[in-house]
Design a protein that fits this description.
The complex is a heterotrimer of chains A (about 500), B (about 290) and C (about 300).
Chain A: E1 30-35, H1 50-59, E2 64-66, E3 73-75, E4 78-83, E5 89-94, H2 108-120, E6 133-140, E7 143-148, H3 155-158, H4 169-175, H5 177-182, E8 190-196, E9 200-205, E10 219-224, H6 228-236, E11 242-243, H7 248-255, E12 260-261, E13 270-275, H8 285-294, H9 297-305, E14 310-311, H10 334-344, E15 350-356, H11 360-375, E16 379-385, H12 387-395, E17 401-406, H13 413-420, H14 428-431, H15 437-448, H16 452-468, E18 472-477, E19 483-485, E20 488-489, E21 505-506
Helix pairs in contact in A: 8-10, 15-16
Chain B: H1 4-7, H2 23-43, H3 45-48, H4 80-116, H5 118-133, H6 136-147, H7 151-161, H8 164-178, H9 181-188, H10 193-229, H11 241-249, H12 257-283
Helix pairs in contact in B: 2-4, 2-12, 4-5, 4-7, 4-8, 4-10, 4-12, 6-7, 8-10, 10-11, 10-12, 11-12
Chain C: H1 2-31, H2 36-41, H3 47-56, H4 63-75, H5 89-124, H6 129-141, H7 146-160, H8 173-206, H9 210-217, H10 222-238, H11 240-260, H12 265-274, H13 278-306
Helix pairs in contact in C: 1-13, 5-6, 5-8, 5-11, 6-8, 7-8, 7-11, 8-10, 8-11, 9-10, 11-12, 11-13, 12-13
Chain lengths: ~500, ~290, ~300
């Protein structure tokens, strides 16, 4: 229910004693979610970490809104839009009566402000997708026009991204960036009630949310619980309603319960083995192929995830657009692997696997890899370091092989390719230092290609090349392992790490 | 000990502790026996262990105790009994090697500070204060983080910070010894400091350090396994007990044996050294 | 007069110690490889953004310069900013102080009381069956790894039986207490053996002291001698143990709080080391050292005051 009376207009963000709209007789409905991720800031452009991404979507509305499963883009703050023939000019028309959580109207000025900030602010962490925007202007109070450098296929999807939430120009300018990031004025279904950093974030319904009748649940609590077991025991005792990311080993036992469900919704996560192409031994494609063939990926997948994940065939996650399901995976062939090693003169050589401490899964994968790689003739050692050191060594190219994972924040493959397979795009192919100019070229072509079929071809070629050259070794595609209390209906997390919280309901 | 007067050595500085009627030797022997037993397990591990500790078995994942696997298996099918047996080698050597450098360094520093006094000693005391007030865990964590993980660097970190208790004990003892008559006499007679230290001070000052050594072995094992628990100590697949406990955390509700048994092993090994240490203390009549 | 001088002396000694700790921590923390900004912005942050944020925090200045800036701010009451949470460090510390305080106080109480009880019971009747049982208990207890004990207690009392909450801190005092029971039990079971062993040894020692023999020859009953003479005389040599307990509980909070998901200083400490949150690391080290030093000083002062031998 949306408040029908206008509260007194305030410049400051709403005080927490403003009534949420539950009627007097009913208590607030609260949903408690335990997550291992931390919330580090409430300013949507300042972070691209998972813990923040999931929260930004609840605090800020975008021009478009995705369906709960992320498959379709529907009108959000914009009720309709038009694009030019060559797809370089996009015009969005905002709905009537939009307001921020402090009651101040949301206009095209705010949209312009938000996107310029997104594109130009030096603290904007994920501004890449918005660089093609040459110009964004407010034609009137309710109309925004984007002019792009050239056709950009991912643009439409980027408008819905987690950091493209619309922020209030007046609040950011008055409060200053730092204060805004702690207690923002918002445009999404929920607003901030209380934020205790490193502990919990409590959000309550935003009475000015544009969507009538939503959100259904009054209060959302994100509780930070880094320990896996703790989250499992919390949901087992009913202390929380949703446990994000439960360990593979606990899924069966939780799912079998009548009061808990583990639906294993698709994510865009992919587990891979990174190989350092700068390493003299690994720069030889035969050695890389040998490693790929030495690994019994089916076995690893089955053992580590208890069969809950799908073995990966392509270096791109399977829920991305233009993922190629027909690409044949590198087969498990230890004999062939030995042969290749002999050919390349790498038989008996040392191989060090670098892993992050603190995860049983990671350890398992590395132990299995060690066994299988030793079996074909490598002398394998494992080096376990903490996260900070791991990144340091990775970025500096001071490692040989490491199993890790990555995910993409949108279903569009452009950013994924630039992140993981492009050697000249800033991330050195996820720090494998793999460089293939053809892939880079194809990626540039594909981002401008608006015909879906042609685009598909381009991305298929990219995947094929990357696989042939063993840029990385794909292991498996893990689904989300969130556990939900059956008292909750309609809640899921889509592949872009966005919750469908506003549609969710609880029956206790 | 009774002959010390005739040989010119001072009686070991002692506070008389009431003797335990007949209890004294038994517990000490028990302690020695336990330690010996572990040492044997470590030496004869390949013969005692039913499996290769790093051999995986995908048909026997997370199995509870059974005839085939008396202590169960872990998430990759490793046999727990095998891992614990081979882990004895790691933990026992960790305790013994880890105390070596601190023991030596601490004694040297303690004697020098206590004997020579003055500025050196004051500096030493400040250093001790700092080291004492500093959260020890954090210091070790930081050093290991800088040097990199692994038991070797753990020993280095220990050498840098763990000598403090020894230095304190030895310094206190040295201060008393220094003023004893026979030392005064030796000085007057013109013996040089080095000789006095080595022949007279050292053998006696070392006593409290030697007793603390046993306790320290226990502490070193506990800290080292704790470090491995955090992934900064023994590297996989080394079957170090602390690492095994950490591994079992994820499966604590379905496969509690993975975490519980290695912990029991730690307690039993610690028991041996503690009993031995207590017995030693009583024998040497030193107050801990 | 001399006593007061001694006390003042101890006071002055604190400052160089804390300063030394402060510098060493700063240098150490900055020598550990790893970039806090990259860790907090997420893996996809481009290098130029990381560089911009680093500059904001002044992380590219030479380390010593950074230290002096830090010191200058500290004197003004500014403890710096947490890179991870973009909030002032002081705020963070105050926020998380309470749970650790609960741990400390509860840990103290539940260690000291059992220690007193067991030591007295044991030494009252040396080598009796009670004494021997107690000795077995603390000998075994000395070898308990705290992290393992915590897991076992959680397994038995929370997971298997559901009597107590496994983790977290709760939302009101009653809940706080129920959530702290297992952590207190862990601290107690690890600390009590050490303390009992020590106290009992002291008590036993005093059994043969002159005043005991004198009392016995006067025909005074054993228990009278015990309570009026042995016990009070044992207090002085045992005081330093208080310092030990505080030090230990603080140190173990780093291990125990994460396992029990208690949002206290220990958990903050370990998170900040892993996340290279430099100013939080500094603050935490300062807080821990300060508490330790204060406790040690308090004990020293107390000892000085009580000790009749020093005038």
């Amino acid at each position: 229910m949306v408040a029908t009376e206008e509260p007194a207009v305030t410049e400051a963000p709403p005080a927490t004693e403003e009534a949420p709209v539950a009627t007097e007789e009913e208590e607030e409905t609260v949903i408690r979610i335990a997550t291992p991720n931390t919330v580090s800031t409430l300013d949507p452009i300042k972070s691209a970490a998972a813990g923040d991404i999931q929260v930004f979507g609840q605090l800020y509305s975008r021009l478009l809104k995705a369906t709960p499963d992320g498959s379709e883009l529907l009108p959000g703050l914009a009720e309709r839009w038009e694009q030019s023939e060559d797809q370089t000019v996009w015009t969005f028309y905002l709905r009537d009566g939009l307001k921020f959580s402090d009651g101040i109207p949301l206009t095209a000025e705010d949209v312009v402000f938000s996107f310029l900030r997104l594109r130009d602010h030096e603290g904007s962490v994920y501004s890449g997708p918005f660089q093609p925007i040459k110009d964004v202007e407010a034609l009137d109070e309710k109309t925004v026009r984007f002019t792009l450098d050239g056709p950009a296929a991912p643009f439409f999807g980027s408008v819905e991204m987690f950091n493209a939430g619309i922020v209030p120009k007046h609040a950011v300018e008055e409060m200053g960036e730092e204060e805004f990031a702690k207690m923002p004025v918002v445009s999404g279904p929920y607003m901030v009630r209380e934020w205790l950093p490193n502990d919990r974030l409590i959000m309550e319904r935003n009475p000015y949310y544009w969507r009538e009748g939503y959100p259904k649940i009054d209060v959302v609590e994100f509780i930070e619980v880094p320990n896996d077991n703790t989250r499992v025991s919390m949901i087992s005792t009913g202390e929380i309603d949703v446990a994000v990311s439960v360990p593979w080993a606990n899924i069966e036992e939780l799912d079998q319960r009548d009061d808990i469900d583990v639906p294993l919704d698709p994510s865009t996560v992919i587990e891979v083995v990174l190989l350092n192409h700068k390493d003299p031994m690994l720069s030889d494609v035969r050695v890389r192929k040998a490693i790929a063939m030495a690994l019994d990926v089916d076995n690893i997948t089955k053992t580590v995830t208890f069969g809950k994940a799908t073995r990966a065939n392509s270096p791109l996650p399977n829920s991305l657009l233009y993922y190629d399901p027909d690409l044949p995976a590198i087969p498990y062939d230890p004999d062939q692997a030995k042969q290749l090693l002999e050919e390349a003169g790498a038989m008996g050589k040392k191989l060090e696997l670098m892993m992050v401490s603190g995860s049983a899964i990671t350890e398992q994968i590395h132990l299995l890899m060690q066994n299988q790689l030793t079996a074909v003739g490598f002398e394998v050692t494992i080096k376990q370091v903490d996260l900070g050191t791991w990144w340091d060594l990775l970025v500096g190219g001071e490692y040989q092989a490491a199993a890790s994972w990555w995910y993409n924040e949108t279903p569009d493959p452009d950013l994924a390719v630039r992140w993981a397979l492009c050697g000249t795009c800033g991330s050195d192919s996820f720090y494998t230092f793999y460089v293939n100019e053809e892939i880079d070229r194809l990626a540039d072509e594909a981002v401008k290609e608006v015909d879906p079929q042609k685009r598909a071809e381009l991305y298929h070629r990219i995947q094929q090349i990357a696989l042939d050259e063993v840029a990385q070794i794909p292991l498996y595609y893990p689904p989300y392992t969130n556990a939900y209390s059956t008292a909750i209906q309609g809640l899921m997390m889509n592949p872009a790490i966005q919750w469908s919280l506003e549609e969710a309901t609880i029956t206790r | 000990m009774a002959d010390q007067l005739t040989t010119g050595k001072a009686p070991a500085i002692a506070k008389v502790v009431a003797t335990r009627r007949g209890r004294l030797p038994f517990l000490t022997i028990l302690g020695a026996g336990i330690v010996l037993a572990w040492a044997l397990v470590a030496i004869f591990a390949p013969f005692l262990s039913p499996y290769d500790p790093i051999a995986t078995d995908f048909n026997a994942i997370l199995q509870p105790m059974s005839r085939a696997h008396p202590l169960g298996t872990d998430s990759l099918g490793h046999d727990m009994l095998a891992q614990i047996i081979y882990g004895t080698r790691v933990d026992l050597s960790m305790g013994l090697i880890g105390v070596a450098a601190p023991f030596v360094i601490g004694i040297i520093i303690g004697i020098i500070g206590g004997y020579f006094g003055g500025l050196l000693d004051t500096l030493l005391m400040r250093l001790l204060d700092i080291a004492l007030a500093f959260p020890f865990i954090v210091l070790v964590l930081a050093i290991v983080a800088i040097l990199g993980p692994g038991l070797k660097n753990y020993y280095i970190a220990l050498a840098i910070v763990a000598w403090v208790p020894y230095a304190r004990l030895v310094r206190a003892e040295t201060l008393v010894l220094r003023n004893l008559e026979f030392v005064e006499a030796a000085r007057v007679l013109g013996y040089d400091s080095f000789y006095i230290i080595v022949r007279h001070v050292l053998p006696n000052a070392i006593t409290p350090a030697a007793v603390f050594l046993m306790t320290d072995i226990v502490l070193t094992i506990l800290l080292g396994s704790g470090l491995s628990f955090y992934g900064l100590g023994a590297q996989p697949p080394t079957p170090e007990w602390g690492r095994l406990i950490a591994q079992g955390q994820t499966y604590i509700s379905q496969a509690w044996w993975i975490s519980v048994f290695p912990g029991i092993a730690i307690v039993l090994m610690a028991l041996g050294f503690t009993l031995l240490g207590d017995g030693l203390a009583k024998q040497l009549k030193v107050r801990q | 007069m001399k006593k007061i001088n001694l006390i003042l002396q101890r006071f002055w000694q604190i400052i160089p110690v804390l300063l030394g700790i402060s510098i060493i921590t700063f240098l150490l923390a900055h020598s550990i490889p790893g970039d806090p900004v990259r860790l907090i912005l997420g893996p996809r942050a481009p290098q130029d953004v990381i560089d911009a944020v680093r500059q904001q925090y002044g992380l590219d200045e030479p380390v010593l310069t950074q230290y002096f800036i830090y010191l200058r701010n500290l004197v003004r009451g500014d403890w710096g900013q947490s890179i991870a949470f973009k909030t002032p460090v002081l705020e963070l510390v105050l926020l998380r102080f309470t749970p650790t305080l609960y741990l400390l106080i509860g840990g103290l109480v539940f260690s000291i009381i059992p220690t007193l009880v067991l030591s007295i019971l044991g030494s009252a009747n040396p080598d009796g069956w009670l004494d021997q049982t107690i000795r077995v208990f603390y000998t075994v207890g000395l070898g308990l790894p705290s992290y393992w004990l915590a897991l076992v207690l959680v397994l038995i009392f929370a997971i298997r039986s559901g009597w107590l909450p496994a983790t977290g801190f709760g939302n009101n005092i009653k809940e706080h207490i129920s959530h702290m029971i297992l952590p207190w039990a862990t601290v107690s079971m690890v600390m009590t053996p050490i303390l009992t062993r020590n106290l009992r040894a002291t008590l036993m020692e005093k059994q043969d002291a002159d005043f005991v023999i004198a009392g016995l020859s006067k025909g005074l009953p054993r228990y009278y001698i015990f309570w009026r003479h042995i016990l009070p005389n044992s207090v002085l040599p045992s005081l330093h143990l208080l310092g030990v307990i505080v030090l230990y509980i603080l140190g173990s909070s780093i291990v125990i709080e994460p396992i029990f998901a208690i949002p206290g200083l220990g958990q903050l400490y370990i998170r900040s080391v892993i996340g290279r949150d430099y100013y939080v690391i500094q603050a935490m080290t300062l807080v821990f050292s300060l508490i330790t030093v204060t406790a040690t000083l308090a004990v020293d002062v107390l000892t000085l005051i009580i000790d009749p031998r020093i005038k």
